[in-house]
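Regression report. Comparing outputs from two consecutive submissions.

Submission 1:
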Amino acid sequence: MAIDQKFINQFVNVTSKAALASYHLVGKKDKIAADKAAVDKMRTELNKIDMEGEVVIGEGELDEAPMLFIGEKLGTKKGPKLDIAVDPLEGTNFVANNLPGALSVISVAEKSNLLNAPETYMNKISANVSDPNIIDLDNSVKKNIYNLAEYKDKQPSDLTACVLDRPRHKKIINELKNLKVNLKLITDGDVSGALLVTDQKYNVDIFLGIGGGPEGVLAASALDAFDCFFQCRFLFNTIEDKNRAKKMGIIDLEKKYYLKEIITGDSIFCATGITSGDLVSGINIDSNDFTSETLITHKSAGLKKIIKIKQKI
């Protein structure tokens, strides 16, 4: 079964309207208000769609932020049953401080085809390789880089690695420096970071490190359409995290997930820019109109492109 293509424009509209709602708070130093604006607008727009939607990946638990919560039912209840993953505002700090790279993101899959991921951290790695034996979470950084360099017929010094700039990644960053790998360090926004491997124009060969679990599943939805490699492993640091995971059906807490285990079947992914970044341009307002730019993928239709839309505010 494939998700009807009629939903593409509807979900693009959802992320575009959520992005616009958050855009009004760019530079206002209030990330909670910016997140709430995006959440509220996304919920309103999703409830207009003829579907029986259920949020299987929500956002906000870790930040005590407003959220579209896991288990929340959305849509008119008339239409197909769909699982929904959301990050209405990825990059709350980007919006609060008027920095590049904020996105409004959604992924929609057929019922039970999207991994039900808890709001916790995960170790993840992505690259645009078709051979599953090139990179692996269980390899050393050195082995992954040497394998990838050989696969791409490059030197390690010709490769670029994208990593979240966090103290927890000090060892990884130092290893990459020692291997003479070019670094692209990002302060937030690891959905975008993971997707920079999809196209040569972004000049990123590999994304690796620890980031949000929900963001990993969202990125996997788009990476699937690009036939990229993605692997992840959840990190459960507390008994509460472990118990929540078990309630969500995750029995093996050490399991290493491959892309096809995270998302099966068809999916639609939309990421609309709020502030301009590497992936897409941000919202632009001209009088009573606004223009949005969205990266959209629809696996069954083979759709993977960036579209620009002009709408009335």
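Submission 2:
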Amino acid sequence: MFLLPAALLILVMNFWPMIQAFLLSLQTGRGTRMNWADPLWSNYQRLFSDEIFGLTVQNTFIYLIIQVPIMLVVAMVLANLLNDPNLRFKGLWRTAIFLPCAVGLVSYSLVFRTMFANDGIVNDALMGMHFIDSPINWLGQTGTARFVIILGLLWRWTGYNMVFYLAALQNLDRSTFEAAKIDGAGAFQTFWYVTVPQLRPMILLTAIMSTNGTIQLFDESWNLTQGGPSYTTMSMSHYLFELSFQKNPNFGYGAALSYAILIMVAVLAWIQMKVGDKRD
């Protein structure tokens, strides 16, 4: 009985909209003039011929393949360093690294956009150190714009994942580290052969969460680059927003795209579970 109110809220606020979205993905039309598609799967079929959707998938997976591994490795290394009992000012370092997570997504995106503007602090600093002769159009070129988005993601989310690893490290069996030290293992050998294997469940958890978050990326694409130039930095969720609420809104096709994102998230999570979970 205590669980019933929460279960009803989840049903009404989560699952019912998901069912409505699926039914909407089988329809075509504009506004309130929606009709069942003929055939019903035509919106899903259209995804395979949509070049912009293909480009947004490519962009999203570029962010995923580059950013997630770097972020998780850096987070794990930082957690290992901050778990040292002899480290001074541990609270200060932990707070400083985690603090970006407390910054709003829109706020930090706008700060990065200002920093990497043509007259921003980054260009001023590089020109002041004579690394470049003229300002770089960071957000107006595909390669550099993607770099800024990836850098922003690393800055925002590395500390978040570090906290998970730090919590897991503090629950590891200390006798394994003492045994490794007696056997003559160095710092790297202890980290690679003792720490990492024991962190496998947490690595799997953070990998799945980071993958899901990156596939659903929106704020950075919207606030930093507006998807430009020419859709080359736009994420799938950003394209979903554009289809549904901008430029001749198409709710049926947008709903189909949302289910395509859901399927990608589910498939990647399943693959990661199969690859990463080695428990009997």
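Expected: both submissions complete independently.
Actual: both completed, but the second showed a warning that disappeared on reload.
Relevant detail on submission 2: Residues 51-82 form the longest helix (32 residues).
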